[in-house]
Every structure is written in C-alpha cells, then in structure tokens.
Amino acid sequence: xxxxxxxxxxxxxxxxxxxxxxxxxxxxxxxxxxxxxxxxxxxxxxxxxxxxxxxxxxxxxxxxxxxxxxxxxxxxxxxxxxxxxxxxxxxxxxxxxxxxxxxxxxxxxxxxxxxxxxxxxxxxxxxxxxxxxxxxxxxxxxxxxxxxxxxxxxxxxxxxxxxxxxxxxxxxxxxxxxxxxxxxxxxxxxxxxxxxxxxxxxxxxxxxxxxxxxxxxxxxxxxxxxxxxxxxxxxxxxxxxxxxxxxxxxxxxxxxxxxxxxxxxxxxxxxxxxxxxxxxxxxxxxxxxxxxxxxxxxxxxxxxxxxxxxxxxxxxxxxxxxxxxxxxxxxxxxxxxxxxxxxxxxxxxxxxxxxxxxxxxxxxxxxxxxxxxxxxxxxxxxxxxxxxxxxxxxxxxxxxxxxxxxxxxxxxxxxxxxxxxxxxxxxxxxxxxxxxxxxxxxxxxxx
Length: 447
Hints:
Mean pLDDT: 89
Number of helices: 13
Low-confidence stretches: 4-9, 110-114, 116-133, 441-447
Structural class: alpha+beta
C-alpha cells in the first residue's frame, strides 16, 4: 500500500523510475518537495539496467558516458558514482589494422592541432598510385583539429549554429570526406547510434564536444549503478516499483493496483512511446535499434581498456570492447567479458564471431555467448531539425521529461529531469537550487 503521506493532494507524482524521473525526484527533494516515483517494473533504471549471470554484469543497452557530462556533477545523489574510463581516444579498425585515433584534445590544443594539419597538408604528396594509410599523420592532424575546434566552442554557440544533418554540416565546414567517413562516422555510431550521420548537427556537436573534453566511461558495477544510486539516496518510500499507471491528469494518476491517487502535479518520465500512450498527442520519434551481445572469453583478446570501432564495416558490430578490462567488477576472476554493440537486429552467431575474430585478431571459437539483448526502441533518433530543449511543461500541473525531450544520452535524460523539476517548482512558487555557471540559461521555453 502507498503511505498516507503520498495520498495528499500536495504530492508531486513522477511516472517512470528511469534516469530522467529519478533526476527530477532528486532536484525536487533538494528543494524541499517530496515526490512519489511510480514505476511498473520491478527495478528502477529503465533502459539503464544490468543483468547478472554467473558473476558477470551485462548491460542491456550499454550507453556510454563521458567524464565531461555536467549533469553527473550537478545531479544530487551521484556523489558516490565511480566512472571507469576507457583509454583516451578510440581504437579504430581501419584498412585491416588497428590504430589509435581521436584522443581528446581539450580547447587549449586547438591552435596546435590546426597548425599541424596545415603543415602536413603542404608537405610533398606521395607518389602517384601510393595511397597513404587512413591512420597517417595528416588524418590524425585533421581529426585533432576538428575535435579541438568543437572542444573550444561554447555549447551555447553550438546550439545557435545553422542546423543540418551532421554529415553535411561537417563537410560544409571543410572536414575532408575521408576524415568524416573514416573517423567521425564510427565515432558517432558509438556515441549516438547514428552510422548514417543524419543526426542534427546541433545535437551531434554537443556529443562531440563532450567527447573532446573528457573520456568515454562506464559506471563501475554496471549501468544500473547510476539509477540505483539516485533511487537509494531519496527519502525512504519515495520510489515505488511494480505500480502500473493507466491514466494521468494534471491533478491525479490512476494505477492498476491502487486506484486513483490525487496530487498537485504530475511529471511523466517514461520513454517516448509509453508517454504517448498515457498522453495521446505527444510526438513519438523514430528510434535507433540496438542489440548488445555479451561473450565470456577465457582470456582478454585485448589487454588495454579500449573502445574498438569498426571503420571497415566488416559486419554488424559497430563497436566492441573487453569491458572487463575497463571495469574488472563486471566479470568473475579469471574470465574476460567482451561486450559488442550492433546497430540493428540480432545477427547470426556466425557473422558475429567472424567479425569479432577479425577485429580482435584472434579466434573466437572458445567464447561463450552469455546474453543477447535487443531493443527496437533503444535510442531516440534526433534528425534535423531537432530541438534539444523541447518544452517540459505542457501546462500548469503536467510536465514531461526524458531523453526524447533533450538529447538521446544519459546527459540529456538527467538534464531533462532537472528542467522538469525546475518547471514544477516555478509553478508551485518555490525556488530551485542555484545554478552552476556552466548550466543552461534560466529562460524556459513556453509549452
């Protein structure tokens, strides 16, 4: 049964115990408003869930984080979050070999990277018929210069730029096609699940800005660590799982288990499709389909904690890693965990192992398949035009948040939850906590 305190009309009910809903709950709690979070699942986290199998911790979606995400610092409850970073940059499998590429540059190195690119571009050309390797110095300098420019640009300026599909935008700004398709395409496949480079340039450049200023990382212990930290640091009784919400209004929610619950405000924090079922008329975006396959190996096929991207597009795998080298807690002692992401439906075991054998340069015959997690609606697509700050306030008393209202990242989900909490507090006549200097401007868009 729900506690009597939560039946009061002053309560704020949050429908959905994913990252966005829990972020909203944290910010409301910090402002002195105790919310009630309802989720139909048996555990919190939504898509940020982790399956436990024989001592292995297997993420269902495997979203990557960046150490530069501001919301990881600004969201209450995440002080104890431990991030396990990948090696700087990525390992790129290109033209039959692996090489390191795209190491974060930081804004201070922009001028040096640009100078290096110009110097190499003016160097003598190779003899006719000799094609330099994609991993050559000129390619690295061009990529470094592009990332350095993005790293040095304020996010507000990125959002103010003319909006195009990211592939077209980068070409029009002078990025060579070779660099775009050889480096940026596989990188954005990993960051945004977008191998076709159709994402809004504003959203994609925000992701590249975060990448260029930090390190790719995963939560220690599995993806579910992050939402569990958010939930566990809320007051006891705030989060209720196994409660199915069947209808919502600005002043009440209806549940299958407890009937109608009166409230002052409702925050709808489910995924986009579920939100549209409860609130017909909400736009449902296209989604990127994702399959994550986990293999146990007797020994790590790659000893460094690197993210390995396939620029050659040898098969269905977009990126892979020996995730137990990044986060040892994800595999039992003496075993290695290889996690691979496919941007599409589950492939055949044969084509999967053939590609992984080529990427890692080793036999995969002794590998054991632990799990295949498929989600046809894993990541909301963000084609141009896309508003990365879609309104969270529908009208007084009814709000909506999630990565589909912001950017399709963990950063976007956390940020949209904070925006929703701020809108609720404004309508209640209460004050939110002071903003940090790098946070978004105080102006909210009208619904």
